[in-house]
Design a protein that fits this description.
- The chain has 118 residues and is mainly beta.
- The protein contains no helices and 11 strands.
- Strands 2, 4, 5, 6, 9, 10 and 11 form a 7-stranded mixed sheet that branches. It has a 4-stranded antiparallel sheet with strand order 1-3-8-7, with no helix packed on it.
- The chain is globular.
Length: 118
């Protein structure tokens, strides 16, 4: 069973930067599409960014131009580089992987807290 673990969350001031990592428990040989989601208190979980097996990326409008998703297949790790952070970016951030050809994200990490102070 594939397992994912996020790291890199923390407390940062508005305008600052963080890099989140999501590492898989086994080699996946680009067999997955990978995504980042977040959930703020009292809100539903929302899509943040995704990178597919070929490296193509998509972003939510709210983070476009500030966040960058990337991956290192050799390290089984996906990253989310977050710049110009805003208080409204405060949330628990989750990574998720979707098998190629699948319709939903089947594998989720436990989440990492990101708090942006004003």
């Amino acid at each position: 069973q594939l397992q994912l673990v996020e790291s890199g969350g923390g407390l940062v001031q508005a305008g600052g930067s963080l890099r989140l990592s999501c590492t898989a428990s086994e080699r996946t040989f680009s067999s997955y599409d990978e995504g980042w989601f977040r959930q703020a208190p009292g809100k539903e979980r929302e899509f943040v960014a995704a990178i597919n097996w070929s490296g193509s990326t998509t972003y939510a409008d709210s983070v476009k131009g500030r966040f960058t998703v990337s991956k290192d297949n050799a390290k089984n790790t996906m990253y989310l580089h977050m710049n110009s952070l805003k208080p409204e970016d405060t949330a628990v951030y989750y990574c998720a992987w979707k098998p190629l050809g699948g319709t939903k994200y089947d594998y989720w990490g436990p989440g990492t807290q990101v708090t942006v102070s004003s």
